[in-house]
Design a protein that fits this description.
- The protein has two domains: about 130 residues, no CATH class; about 190 residues, Immunoglobulin-like, CATH 2.60.40.
- α4 packs across α6.
- The chain is of the alpha+beta class.
- β1 and β2 form a beta hairpin.
- The strands form three sheets. It has a six-stranded mixed beta sheet with strand order 4-7-2-1-9-11, with no helix packed on it. Strands 3-6-5 form a three-stranded antiparallel beta sheet, with no helix packed on it.
- The chain is elongated, with a radius of gyration of 23 Å.
- About 30% of the residues are buried.
């Protein structure tokens, strides 16, 4: 039986072999990517068994960019040229991209190849560290999965505001059974400046697809919910659940709704239904707004028209983690 160090070495060698296979030919621009990535990459990137080239390309590129975000620029360029993801590098042979990289670095082709090998060696180390940190074992409930699609319906035509979220998640590992989600209800504009105490509360319930195991309050207006799924998910499995959040009648809310993804999200659709008896004076879309800006009074953007149902519907593709996407309004 191999000891832990040997097992780690074997995992790294296997991952390096998969990286080497992936960067040959067209790299990530190749077709039939399902046959070009091995089990290590599928596990690392959460690639479903039935995924097509477009999804595989997006999943792999997202994870590799996350892992190499702190790399020196020359290492990131070596990875991008090798995998044909840098602009102008979509060439059918790796040797052509190595030539381009050598010209970029003003070095010999042999030196460029060594830099590529070194960059992928570091990338493999980061990948194994991510797995060891909990994504493989699943002890961190904020990791090991991502959101394929989020559909949010905010109803402002009810007695109190109501948000219904339908999420389709994808497991990045085998045995995913519990996940953690967050919801925030910031103090309304002016509450802090006037010294008015705000005891933000929210009522949450699962309509289908999970049950709430625990509820935690993080700060004045931030809430964390641990959800138990109906069954353990295997790596690549999809699962959909629906939650509803209600704001008590006595609790005011800010005149905007923002989704700030903390995990990768492929698609986000937002529908806001306004009260026909009290239509908004203005409605506008915002995207990629820093969280600190969301805490300020928002500046209206280009006005949007409501449809005949008094609704506005917006779609966001691949919202960036850590930034706000949503709708603001003036009543």
């Amino acid at each position: 039986m191999a000891d832990g160090q040997d097992a780690t070495r074997d995992d790294k060698e296997a991952l390096l072999e998969e990286f080497a296979k992936l960067r040959h030919g067209w790299g990530l621009e190749a077709t039939n990517l399902r046959g070009r990535i091995g089990p290590q990459l599928r596990r690392l990137c959460g690639v479903r068994a039935d995924a097509g080239d477009r999804e595989i390309r997006r999943r792999v590129l997202t994870v590799l960019r996350e892992l190499s975000a702190a790399f020196p620029e020359h290492d990131r360029q070596a990875l991008a040229f090798a995998l044909a993801t840098a602009p102008g590098t979509q060439l059918p042979r790796l040797t052509e991209r190595v030539d381009m990289l050598a010209q970029r670095f003003s070095c010999a082709d042999r030196t460029a190849r060594r830099r590529i090998i070194r960059a992928f060696d570091r990338l493999a180390e980061e990948a194994l560290a991510r797995i060891a940190a909990g994504e493989e074992t699943g002890e961190d409930l904020d990791k090991g999965w991502y959101v394929s699609r989020l559909e949010s319906l905010l109803r402002l035509d009810c007695a109190t505001p109501e948000l219904i979220e339908r999420r389709t998640i994808v497991s990045r590992r085998d045995g995913l059974r519990r996940i953690a989600i967050r919801f925030s209800l910031p103090r309304p504009d002016g509450a802090q400046s006037t010294g008015t105490p705000v005891d933000a509360t929210v009522v949450a319930d699962v309509q289908q697809g999970a049950r709430i195991e625990s509820r935690e309050r993080e700060g004045e207006a931030h809430f964390r919910f641990v959800l138990t799924l109906p069954r353990p998910l295997r790596q690549g499995d999809q699962h959909t659940y629906t939650m509803v959040f209600r704001v008590p009648d006595s609790q005011p809310m800010r005149p905007h709704y923002a989704f700030v993804p903390l995990l990768p999200c492929d698609e986000f659709q937002l529908r806001v239904r306004f009260d026909p008896q009290h239509p908004p004076a203005a409605v506008w879309r915002f995207q990629r707004v820093p969280p600190r800006v969301l805490n300020d009074r928002m500046v209206p953007g280009e006005s949007l028209d409501l449809d005949e149902a008094g609704e506005v519907v917006l779609d966001f593709s691949r919202p960036e983690t850590g930034f706000g996407y949503g709708v603001g309004w003036v009543l």
